[in-house]
Amino acid sequence: MNPPDLIGSARLLGAWSWSAARTFEVVGNWVRDEPDPEVKIQFFAHSRRRGAHSISLAGLLPIIAGSDPADWIAPIDDRDPALFESMARLDGTLERLGSLYEELLPREIAEYRGFLSSSYSLADMPAIRIVAAIMADQQQDLQVGTMLTGVITSVASEGP
User: Fold this and answer.
1) pLDDT, tens only, 135-153
2) How far is CA 18 from the centre of its chain?
């Protein structure tokens, strides 16, 4: 991954902010009807962190003549809106855990890792610091989510 130029950074950070905001909304909505208390707590905590991540990423957006920083907060392509629409319709605990911790988080962590490995200038330091912190949160959430998925799967396979 080559380091992005100013417009590329704005698009990337804006897309990540949009994705974090959508994760906050979708996962936050799951909390209401999640029957498992441990999963409910994890969904709540994950949703709150992603809301904070969205705000942090939006704060990195550049001010470019003729544009509003909020204009950059949008998905990069059509796959993200479709993914979040699909996630919002899920109603089973295992399906929700799978979509979040087996699909979305690994992809986001890989994107953050690519950005961090290609960013190196002093001008990138604020973004590097924030993206590194977000990636650490995501890695921790992935670890907990993977553990929860394993527990829920083994309980489900044991049956009543």
Assistant:
1) 999 999 999 999 999 998 8
2) 9
- The full 3-state SS of 62-88, as one line of letters, equals CCCCCCCHHHHCCCCCCHHHHHHHHHH
Quick: pLDDT tens for 10-51.
899 999 999 999 999 999 999 999 999 999 999 999 999 999
First to last CA, the chain: 49
DSSP state of 123: G
CA dist 53 and 40 (Å) reads 20
Closest CA to 90 of 104, 76, 109, 71: 104
Contact 137, 53 (CB under 8 A): yes
Coil, helix or strand for 159? Answer: coil
In terms of Cα–Cα distance, which of 21, 33, 51 is closest to 89? 33
Q: Structural domain boundaries of the chain?
A: 6-63+75-158
- The class level of CATH for 6-63+75-158 reads mainly alpha
Judge contact between 17 and 73, C-beta under 8 A: yes
- The phi and psi torsions of 59 (rounded to 5 degrees) equal -70, -15
Residue with tokens 């479709």: 82
